[in-house]
Amino acid sequence: MHKYGTTETLEKLDKEGKDAFRLTCTACHGGNPVPRKISDDQAEIERVKRASHVQPRFPEEWKRDGKYTGANPERTNTLLARESWEFVRFINPGDIRVAAKTCGSSGCHEAQTKNVARSMMAHGAMLWGAAFYNNGNFPLKDARFGESYNESGAPQTLIQTPAPTAEQRRTQGLLTFLEPLPRWEISQPGNVLRVFERGGKRRLEVGIPDKDEDPGKPDKGLSPRGFGTAQRTDPVFLGIQKTRLLDPTLNFLGTNDHPGDFRSSGCTACHVIYANDRDKSHSESYQVAGNMGFSKTADTNIPKNESGHPIKHQFTSKIPTSQCMVCHMHPGTNMVATYLGMTWWDNESDGDKMYPKAKHESSQDEEREKLNRNPEAASLRGLWSQLEFLQKTGTPEFNSQLRNVQFGDNHGHGWMFRKVFKRDRKGNLLDAEDKIVAPNDPEKFDKAVHLKDIHLEKGMHCVDCHFRQDSHGDGNLYNEPRAAIEITCVDCHGSIRGPATLFTSGPGAAAVTGQAATTRKNRKEPLIGRDLTRISFHDDAGETVRAFQRLSRDTKKKDEDGKEIQLKAGDIIQNSLVVTGRWWRVIQTADTVTPGSRDYSEKSRYAKTIRKDNSTWGSAPAADKELAHSDDNMTCVACHSSWMTSCFGCHLSMQANRKMPNRHNEGGDSRNFTTYNFQVLRDDIFMLGRDGTVTGNRIAPVRSSSAVLVSSQNQNREWIYSQQQTISAEGFAGQTFNTHVPHTVRAKETKQCSDCHVSEKNDNNAWLAQLLLQGTNFVNFMGRYVYVASDDALEAVVATEHDEPQAVFGSTLQKIAYPDNYETFEKGGRELREVYEHKGNPRVLQVQLRGEYAYVAAGEGGLRVYDVAQIDQKGFSERISTAPVSKYGQKFYVKTKYATAVTSPTTLGVDPARWRMKTDGTMIDPATAAALTGEARHQLVNEEQPIHPLYAYLYVADKYEGLILVNAATLLDGDPLNNYLKRALDPARYPNGAFNPGGALNGANNITIAGTHAYVTTDHGLVIVSIDDPLNPKIVGEIGEPALKHPHAIAVQFRYGFIVDEEGLKVIDLTTPNQPHVLEGAVVSLGDAHDVYVARTYAYVANGKEGIAIIDVEQPEKPRLDQMFNAGGKLNDTHQVKIAMTNASLFAYVADGRNGMHILQLTSPETMPEYAGFSPRPQPVLIGTFKTKGEALAISKPLDRDRAVDESGNQVSVFGRRGARPFNFDEMMRMLRTNDGSGDLFRVTDSPLTPPVSSKP
User: Which ranges constitute the DSSP H helices of 375-504?
Assistant: First the structure.
């Protein structure tokens, strides 16, 4: 290839290239350098350009804004893969397809180009693998599919050579190979919802009726044959092909269509900087270029007002965080967003500035264009789908208008990112001194602490921590990102036992061999990891600078502002890779625990040296195992994180009548598209669990990261399933949790002792329930339909909009986002009018929805199960059914004498009957898998814990028979032929298959399951039944009169039970469930208490004629009445309350007896600035009412979204990383009791109460 360029072009680029290697245009880009123009005629110029430039195969697709240009076009998707190798090289010599011949030739960057092509930033397997396993679509946690293309642009398989052993796959996260993503047309459904079950007569045709079809009962129409045929395929495989999530990977150009989306592909994606963010701390000197992908080049041929150009035609290693953010912002809870102190906007806060005042009806073409840009369906209704509006959000001028949030300046995917500020648990903004910032203070966002990571605050960018290997990969195929990361906190900061070694020691740190190993051994240096002191770079003057230096003597050094800083021998300083002259001293952990050190902190010393006796502290013991918080058991970020994100709910809604492009492999357009709709986004919580195997199974932060719900609309615009859960491959609920590194380190705003242990004031019971992933009933999902038990009928009341955002009728969000609908609703007297019902058989006393079934306590009718799979299907005349098939195919009832209550042990879809896969590919049944212990558990390829068998059953409280168990696991297995419900207990041991020893459960009126205990309220007291062995239940505790008088219901939160009886609300200590006792004085007297529901620090008591009693239980042993609410007398027969969250607001759903069902809005960004706190004080407002046919007695509990484990340590929700899990019961006890969980219950203060020990024992 010629290496000549025109003098004219070289002169224009000289200014930009003088500090680097001098390469001609064709040396990198190819093309023909020979043609010269013979005149300035435009036709002659075009002739020379065509002769010099490599021409594309698809010229029309390379236009931007309708014209040919040098800018990156918008959303090219797979266009690069379809183009010729020569053209790809011409437009981007750093593209992965060509980089081996361009960047990697002549010994320049050969290793890097090979490694990048196999890195996770190129193949993206970690997201696909998690999506497939967590939602039940592929049986392995280890990723199998990844994106890669050969030089001709064809999808290819990546192979690890030599193949890793099973142990390397388990402990190092290595993969054997990665295959291209299969076409969705050949997939088979992993979650067999009713519509996917066997059956069906024909393939559904659009608008063509079938004369043989039963009226009001349309055929499924997916396929008359088996799985994988016609449309009986997997929607997750389809969504990943077409919905923009992680896309595009480094294989393709960025989408180049929003502020924050501008980049190239391959090497150039990182090393050529585009204008994406005007925030200086994110972009440094590049901020002047704006956020619209405009150029600042000296080349006069490049327009300066056209998006899609790099700032300069120049490679650099000075990569700002704003460039990383282009990719590392999906989901909006990703680590770069959090590093910047930002997360997704909730689609509600300050919504009056984000939605149009008047409704705009988009055309189908408009909707297609908008969804191509941003897959979030709420954007169709909002102003942020307009580029000109999006560009101004994040500016100081726009943010000054906002009351509750402040937006960032980058908008990748077209999304809005809001800044996270320090708050107390009540929701008040706090300044640096923990003083409350008044909500009406015009400078409140300047005074409140913006929780960006302390490293960013000090001037560090991503590349200042994640060096060459972390960024480029090492050539291995990895299953998860952290398996490939070589840097850890201690590599720079050291530990309490000594200063940093400045050698990397993370999971991706490689062992040295040969002479290098001998040299290190002689120097007493670590035998694994990179020597950080050998990393060097060039500053703006071209001088070589070491990234790290350990000072050998006292000295002074000027910082970037010219201020002279005194440094001491032994100090470690780090120089910025991005800003010449910027440096910082790296604080050593050992200094923070050493009295007299300039960095000494008593709190640091206390936290890092406290022993397991909760008393001794001050110095490091000889053995780490004596420490309460040893490095080998805890990650640094388990304490040193100021906040973390949680995405409680992601509604993936597929529509058949949308023709959209495939974004992978060969591309092309086809029908079906899935929108991506996040639901509840919070930054107010903190959760912990056990990290994955690769990262040492240490204690680590846990976030809810993809709590998926799915819907699908067919070609006749019928919703064939709606808002359904998924179940993971081995049976855990698809409401996914993940251990992670939050990247939210702060100096002062970090975790305190009382954030993880029972506080001295005992005011953190709800907080600890959240921390331990037991759930708090606060962020739960009610959905579009509210299921009401109305005595003689089951009624499903429509309570929300169908479109996104799915605002609750009458809510402040509906008023903002759907002003016309809100006005109509208000004029209609705020009455809910759409309902679907089924007459009781004979009664409906209580109801619990789970998945596509509603479980009903039917009084003398016993247990009834209603099929509600078609509840949103307009083609069905009867949307609630007791017999979807004939009696020969199922039996959806169990007769009992008088069923008063029914409960499932969880609202989550948990299938304990799933078989488990071993490393040799064989399958074993759940009981065999559960019996494996110790090293034998390594035979399980996915390293999952067993699912407790108690989750296979429904639990029915019968007034005369006691407790009845019914096996309902068959309702989750996708087989419609085995749904024959019956009593599970052996009638030979338990009369009539019911548990009621000596009549102890006579008069049973309600039941609650918490862990391995069933709490049954009866006419004479509370009976606690152990269901640890569900087919052999036993009574382990009882409380009767005078402590309890005819109790009606109990709610359990962590260590306490909240029970209502004829005297009011009482509190029971359940720290040891086998030894329950009512707490003396912990009583709130109420006149007509029927039921209780606890959501975080408030108990909502259905108090009959007095309405709702809202009781503050922040200190469970000192409950107090906060307020009584009856909506001006409209609530006067209240039987039950349930709490759920929609977007940023909290709602109560009330069964109010003869008055029907009411909806209350408890919190709102529009009315209370504290709405974003962990538990703000509710301000109830009645917003909607539905008059039921009979008395409204009960409301179905909404879906638990923050519950990954039960009170006994049994996991219920899937964790995305292999080996990661919630704490088991013994580990929970270690956080509550001394002596490794076997001693006394202890309480903590955030400052030490005992003097430190000054020497090691």
Answer: 387-392, 396-399, 444-447, 454-457, 468-472, 489-493
Q: Which pairing describes strands 544-546 and 548-550: parallel, antiparallel, or unpaired?
A: unpaired
Residue 1250 lies inside a defined structural domain of this protein: no
Does residue 138 sit within a domain?
no
Domain boundary among 388, 417, 450: 450
Phi-psi region of 1081 (alpha: psi -120 to 50; beta: other; left: phi over 0): left
The string of pLDDT tens digits covering residues 591-638 is: 999 999 999 999 999 999 999 999 999 999 999 999 999 999 999 999
User: For the packed helices 235-242 and 125-134, what is the interaxial angle rounded to 10 degrees?
Assistant: 160
Predicted local confidence at residue 19, as pLDDT = 52
How far is 764 from 762, CA to CA, in rounded Å?
A: 6
In a domain, 332, yes or no: no
Domain match, 279 and 358 both: no
Tokens of 1141: 């969250």
CATH value at residue 1186: 2.120.10
Q: Is the pLDDT of residue 12 over 80?
A: no
Examine the pLDDT at 11 and tell me if it is beyond 70.
no
3-state secondary structure labels for all residues of 550-604:
ECCCCEEEECCCCCEEEECCCCEEEECCCCCCCEEECCCHHHHCCCCCCCCCHHH
Report whether 422 contacts 449 (CB < 8 A).
yes
pLDDT of residue 1060: 99
Residue 705 — pLDDT band, cuts 50, 70, 90? confident
866 and 1007 belong to one structural domain: yes
Burial of 1199 per CB tally in 10 Å (0-12, 13-18, 19+)? buried
Residue 870: which of 981, 712, 725 has the closest Cα? 712
124-160 per-position pLDDT tens digit: 999 999 999 999 999 999 999 999 999 999 999 999 9
Q: Do 500 and 434 fall into the same domain?
A: no
The residue-averaged pLDDT of 957-963 equals 99
DSSP SS3 for 868: coil
Q: Comparing 204-208, 435-439, 882-886, 1038-1042, which segment has the lowest mean pLDDT?
A: 204-208
Q: Do 825 and 704 belong together in one domain?
A: no
The residue segments making up the domain with residue 421 are 342-450
| pLDDT higher than 70, residue 460 | yes
Residue 345 φ/ψ, nearest 5 degrees = -75, 150
Is pLDDT of 332 > 80?
no
- Binned at pLDDT 50, 70 and 90, residue 1255 comes out as low
pLDDT confidence bin for 219, thresholds 50/70/90:
confident
In the predicted structure, residue 4 carries a pLDDT above the cut 70: no
Mean pLDDT of the chain: 95
Domain total of the chain: 6
Residue 78 vs residues 60, 153, 182, 254, 274: alpha-carbon distances, Å: 15, 9, 15, 11, 21
Q: How far apart are CA 595 and CA 1121, in angstroms?
A: 47
Which amino acid is it at 326?
Answer: V
To which H or E segment does residue 1204 belong? none
Pairing of strands 785-789, 1194-1195: antiparallel
340: left (phi over 0), alpha (psi -120 to 50) or beta: alpha
Angle at 593 between CA 591 and CA 594, to 5 degrees: 65
Same domain, 938 and 898: no
- 1020, 1161: one domain: yes
Number of other CB atoms surrounding residue 551 within 10 Å: 15
Among residues 602, 626, 649, the one where a domain terminates is 602
Picking from 1150, 1185, 1200, the residue whose alpha carbon sits closest to that of residue 789 is 1150
Using alpha carbons, list the distances in angstroms from residue 437 to 429, 449, 453, 950, 1104: 5, 10, 21, 48, 39
Same domain, 919 and 893: no
Give the angle subtended at the CA of 674 by the CAs of 189 and 782, to the nearest 5°. 85
pLDDT, one tens digit per residue, over 763-773 is 999 999 999 99
In a domain, 921, yes or no: yes
Pair 479, 564 in one domain: yes
What is the rounded distance in angstroms from the CA atom of residue 75 to the CA atom of residue 373?
8
